[in-house]
Amino acid sequence: HTVVWQNQLPSWVSSLPLNQVQQAMESHITTEASHYKGQVYAWDVVNEPFNGDGSFVSDVFYRAMGSGYIADALRTAHAADPGTQLSHNDYN
Q1: Where are the domains positioned within the chain?
Q2: Rounded to an integer, what distance in angstroms lies between the CA atom of residue 29 and that of residue 3?
Q3: Which of 21, 31, 57, 83 has its CB surrounded by the most CB atoms within 10 Å?
Q4: Matching PANTHER family, A to Z (predicted)?
Q5: Beta strand extents in 6-84 (DSSP E only)
C-alpha cells in the first residue's frame, strides 16, 4: 500500500535513535523501489503524514527529520525508480 507510514511500523524503527531514522527510511525506500523498479506504475511513498487539522503527525519520521522528510522520501524513491509516478496519500 505504501512505503513510509507511521502505522503498522515495526517497533524497532520507532525505537531507533533519531539520528538513525533517516538512513533507515532511505534504505527501506531504496530497497523496495529498486526491487520493483519498472514494475510499479505509481508509488504511494508517504501515507497520512497530516492530522485532520493540517498539522504534521508527530511520528518518528517527523521527529527525526522535520517536515522535510516527505520531500526526502520522494527524492529517494525517484532516485531508485525514476520512471514511476510518486505521490503522498492522506485521508482528509
Answers
A1: 1-6+42-92
A2: 6
A3: 21
A4: BETA-XYLANASE, GLYCOSYL HYDROLASE
A5: 42-47
